[in-house]
Structure formats: structure tokens, C-alpha cells
Amino acid sequence: MEVLKIATAGSVDDGKSTLIGRLLYDTKSMTDDKLEAIERTSKQKGYDYLDFSLATDGLVAEREQGITIDVAHIYFSTPSKSYIIADTPGHVEYTRNMVTGASTSQASIILIDARKGVIEQTHRHFFINNLLRIKDVIVAINKMDLVDFSEETYNKIKADFEELMKKRDYQDQNITFIPVSALKGDNVVNRSENTPWYKGQTLLEHFEALDQKDIYNTGTPRFPVQYVIRPKTEDFHDFRGFAGKVYGGELSVGDEVVVLPSMTRSKIKDIYFYNKQYKTAPRRSSVTITLEDEVNVSRGDMLVKVGDLPTIDKQLTATVSWMDSADFTPGGKYVLQHGLNKVLAKVDAIEHKIHPDYSGIEENVTSLQMNDIAKVRLRLNKPIFYDRFKDHRTNGSFIIIDSRTNNTAGVGFIE
Questions:
Q1: Is this prediction's pTM over 0.70?
Q2: In the CATH scheme, what is the homologous superfamily, with its name and number, of domain 311-414?
Q3: N or C, fewer C-beta in 10 Å, the chain?
């Protein structure tokens, strides 16, 4: 079954957790004990409605303050799709959490409070979706029940957001506007009678109708080798297969490939999944590949098609989102993990800091603090084989590890 991962973004009290709870409730994906707990807690608080935010806000501090602090992942399914929703906090100080939640998502929901309209945080949330090349974005104009389901209010917010869209540098992005009330359930799963002027799909209808080609960015195939399989059994004494996941495109039997970093060539002989053989391995499939020639291939190597080589270099420029409490400074030394490979990295320079509210850049920056986003130059102790992030989300990204603490200190998107 197809799995769709969705990130959420919204300012404080815009209703992200309530929206997710409503999705779970209306798709009958909520367990009986969870529903009973929500009913009991809502009654204790004196509410005359079910507080669906309790379905996702698991930390005590979140429940006490009525805000989301950490990233929560919520799972539910329909007959046609499985869904993973990353409920991310909307505060400025949790920018790193928003980046983390959206980094592996194929679609995104940006919530806007119909009473407040497009605000500074909306700019920040759209910037992150743009930075991470999220291809399908739903702008859910929430709390329509508090503005009497006004079409005029909806159109005003839509027009303001369309002005914001002019600032993006990623144009291959599908933006859809939906008026909703997460609390009441309007246009979330079921179509609302309160918005006869809205002729589009509900939130769930939109995600159900999404095709893979609408959510995955195109790219050239990349096959990082995760494991070399040598059974050495009587039946498979000479078998030598390379297990991994296909990213960015398709690989087929007969394709001429290059092994990186050795640059040796061969052709794909067979493609296996467990005990079955296939002619083609589609994007995002986990398979085992055998080659026609006895070439040296190890964990961390990469198979790519001849003529579709990535950049192989010891230097790179990237947009970095800094997530650590210790400052990121020129001259600093870190471990850079790109795919399966780890290399030592030194910060050559911070070119400029980027204001994620589209207000511009800041030059002459001497360090980055937690939640800062900046364009930086890095020098590595050995080459890696990478693509630009805008061309290949998987092979164009990396994480930065503090070797002293072993913490993930930042993420980078290669330019």
C-alpha cells in the first residue's frame, strides 16, 4: 500500500493538533481507549466539545500549555493509502523541529487562522516548505466557523498568500487552498454544507487523489549500497548481490552503471526482491542488484547510470539549518554524514544568514545559533558524490554531527 508522509505547520493555536485529531476521529482511526481519554479530559476541562489536540500532544507541558513542543508522528490508514503525519511545533524557537518534520515529507499542510490571516510565521512556514522542495502544499484556512464561513475572508487570505508565493524560488510546487474547521470537521474528511461557495475537495479527498508523480520530485536514479550479500550456501555459492534502495528514478536489467567512487563500469544482470526477480526497480523500492562483472563494490558505494554521474568533490556550498546549542563557527570541525558515508568537514565560511520570513539576508555573520539558517561553505577530508538538493532531495542533503557529543547538530541542503 502506498504511504504518504505529510508535514504540518502553523502558528501557535492555529489548530494543527486539532486538525490531526479530527482526521483520526472522522476516519475511525482512533482507538477506543484514546477516544475515551479525550472524552474524559474534555469533560474535566469543562469543554462542550471533544479536544482532539489531546490525540497528538503527548507531553505534559504540551497539554498544560495547549501548544505543540516536540514533533509527533501519527499513523492512520484508509482503504487506498497509509498516512504518516508529522505534527510539528509552530514557534520561532522550534524552527529546527519544523525542518526535521518536513525533511522526509512528500506533502505539507500550512494552517492559517481565518481570524488572523497571513502573518510572519506563515512566511516562515512557507519558506521551509520551499527550502525543502515539498511539492504538494495544502493551505488550510482553519477556524472558518469563527468567521461565519465567510467567502470574502477566505478569498482575502488566499490573495495574501498568493502574493507570498511570488517570493519563492521553487516554482514546481502545487498549492491548494481549502477552507476548514478542524474543531467542527468542515471540509476535513467530510464536505461541509457551511461552504456552498467552495467547490474543491476536502483535505482527505485531496490526499487520497494524489498520484506519486504529483508528490515526488524527478531526478536521476541513485543506488547507495547498504549491504553486500554473500550467502555462501551450496545453492548460492557464487552469488554476490548489492542490497539498497533506489532513489530518484528507475533502474532496469541491462542498464550500464558506474560504481562510485571506483568509477568501474558494469551492467545490471538481475534485480531481486526476496525470492522474486524483476526487470525494473522503481523509485523508492528496496532491492538486491547483481552485476554482470566481478567488480569491487562495498557498503557506502553508489551505483549510477553511465552519463548520469553526480558531482564528486571535497568542497561544497550548502544551506544549513543549525540545530545545536553550541554555535556553528568558521573553522569548526564536524562529521558530515552523506547517505551512508561519514567524512570529516571543516567550515570554510558562513557566506550569509537567511531570514526565513523572506525579509532578506544578513551578511558578515560570525556564527550561527540554534534555529539559524545560512548559506555556508564546507571543505571535506575526502570526496563525496552528491547532487544539488533541488535536483535530488536524497543525494543532495546531509546531516552534521558534533564529534564530541555525537549529537546531530545540523542539516544541510547542497546548492
A1: yes
A2: Translation factors (2.40.30.10)
A3: N
